[in-house]
Amino acid sequence: MHPLADLDTDIASFVAPAKRATLADGRRGFSGVIVDVQASDADGGLPAAELERRLLEMGFVEGARVAILHEGFIGRDPICVRLDDMRVALRRRDARSVLVRPDVAR
Amino acid sequence: MSVLDLKPAQAIAALAAPVRVALVGNPNSGKTAMFNALTGSRQKVANYAGVTVERKEGRLTAPSGRAFSILDLPGTYSLRARSPDEAITRDAVLGRLVGEASPDVVVCVADATNLRLVLRLALELKTVGRPCVLALNMIDIAERQGLEIDTERLSRELAMPVVGTVATRRRNIDVLIDQVERRAALTVHAGASAWTEPSAAEIRALHREAERILAACVRPAKRPDTWTGRLDDVLLHPVAGILILLTVLFLMFQAVFTGAQPIMDLITAGFDGLSGLVGQVLPDGVLKSLICDGVIAGVGSVLVFLPQIMILFLFIIILEDVGYMARAAFLLDKIMGGAGLHGRAFIPLLSSFACAIPGIMATRVIDNRRDRLTTILAAPLMTCSARIPVYTLIISAFIPRRQVLGGLSLQGLVFFGLYALGLVSALAVAWVVRKVFWRGLVEPFLMELPAYKAPDPLNIARNVLQRGQIFLQRAGTIILSMMILIWFLSTVPGKPAGAPGPAIDYSFAGMIGHAIQPVLAPVGFSWQMSVALIPGMAAREVAVGALSTVYAVSAGEGHPAALGGVLAHHWSLATALAFLAWYVFAPQCASTLGVVKRETNSWRWPIIMFVYLTVLAYAAAFVTFNVARALGGG
Q1: B115 touching A, CB under 8 A?
Q2: Is the pLDDT of residue B556 over 50?
Q3: Topology at the third CATH level for domain B3-219
Q4: Nearest residue of B to residue A87 by CA position?
Q5: B330, A80: Cβ pair inside 8 Å?
Q6: pTM for the complete prediction?
Q7: ipTM for this prediction
Q8: pLDDT tens-place string over residues B216-248
Q9: HEC profile for B368-437?
Q10: Which domain CATH number covers A89?
Q11: Is A33 on the interface with B (CB under 8 A)?
């Protein structure tokens, strides 16, 4: 990922708040609010509807606050996020289904 | 206290059928601690029919004399089952399990410091239509954090009694029992359950309702737990976290590998001594052989696994209890995922370096059935300690003691090569199983990392003992009967008086060995080796003794050096290398197959394992033998 990608999303959200980023693109230190949970049928993964429900059941729900606390040491994957007051680990490929609005200023 | 000592009302209560209570809750909610607090040692562990899921049931007698039967169900976030374990929870709650009545009362166990998801589960449970009670467990931690929960309001909102409990200290357990009893006494106008599998929209709606209740009843912690965050900064650190994990795993491996050895030696010596004593009393004959070499040796070969199993589970249960296991899975997910394995598969595979028996038992740390089976199938390829005597014997007899590549011992190099071959094959097998047989089913890695907490020694001790007991009762009986079968094959029929050669040559094992010899000739095995493979099924290290027997190395010169000399005289280098290759793969261990039967609850998987390992072993030995011969090792 481009080192400035994180900055890009910040600027994007500042300029055009409607533009969405996914949790999978975030780096350590990212924080924001979940705006949508929408899975798509990825190759070799679960059916989209099933993945969506599993994410919802784990608390990845619209309006929940999310922040990336830790990243794995190979390919920055998986990630450990704070989800409201819980901690959850997930892979970036599954985090693609979680659309977020980054906090504007840190 | 007998029924006759009770007051009439109590006696009637005691004689009535026990109240069936099901414990349901999120993972890490302290549900098992609650089960232990309620039932103490009156527990029974079995399997649900046809699945690998454990059924834990316990008994409890309330102060009123009323009997309860408590069912501890697998942890879940929803009744919408995602794994066989969760399907059991769903079916048990809904009363759909064959031979299992639906529960009279459902107790929803919650971690009081982490209510959001369990409130949604509680709302879902309500739709089932059974009376519910919510236990806010670990309420002491919530109090310490200054978390204020309005339990009366919560009880009104959820329309179920709410009790704050501390299962590990038995706080308010009596209040909980009392509430359960009251709920059970209510006339249940239980119609059909209104529960249906919720859609995404329904989950969202239930979650919003849970959020509303949470906001209305719970004031956030004044002193939230900061330790978990601080510990995670170190334990999940890309460098420090990995180093700490490797240290923990190294200590665990050392404890299993070397720590258990003195106790195992003691057990072996004890049973050898017992066998010797009994042997002096009994007259020579088949009965003496059955008791000494069959039964006593068989019981010994079951008990000898116990130290390793208990030590390994001590580590696993402590790591689970403090909350570290989820972190280890996080750190290892990428590496293990590359081979198609779950992050948690690391612990069973590492343990299998000591012995596949505790390793395969440890696969129950993996929730997903496919991930668990993949790990079980790969585990016996890890080089277990029972292979060491075989490798040592052959290497010291056939590999020259010289240095290569500037100072490396050739013998050491071969030894290391065998270890590496085992590890690489295990990962390759896992990869193939995952990609070829269960293609297209990558389970998401979606796991809550619980807050760290101090381990509860009583709980740990109880769970470790329970593992040992389960092994003895379930796997032990299978292993013992296999040992006696192997003894029978190797002993019966006996050697006719005055006949030449070793007695085993005249037994069924001898006949089988001779019969399969043509099949094994292409891999360079002599008929003596074919015969030795049959008693060698008892355990891999038994091969050394079995070879001594078939080559009639007399007891006096039975130490490995003498046997090595005999083998060096009889075998070519190509045969020796083929034998080593065979032992990397071959399922020469009846106990492993027995424990796979126990863990998968079916003969299907041990049979698949036996077949695939034998095919691999044959192929490896065939290639090794022919390549070695072509290079002049014949």
Answers
A1: no
A2: no
A3: Rossmann fold (3.40.50)
A4: B449
A5: yes
A6: 0.84
A7: 0.83
A8: 999 989 998 899 999 999 999 999 999 999 999
A9: CHHHHHHHHHHHHHCCCCCHHHHHHHHHHHHCCCCEECCCEEHHHHHHHHHHHHHHHHHHHHHHHHHHHH
A10: 2.30.30.90
A11: no
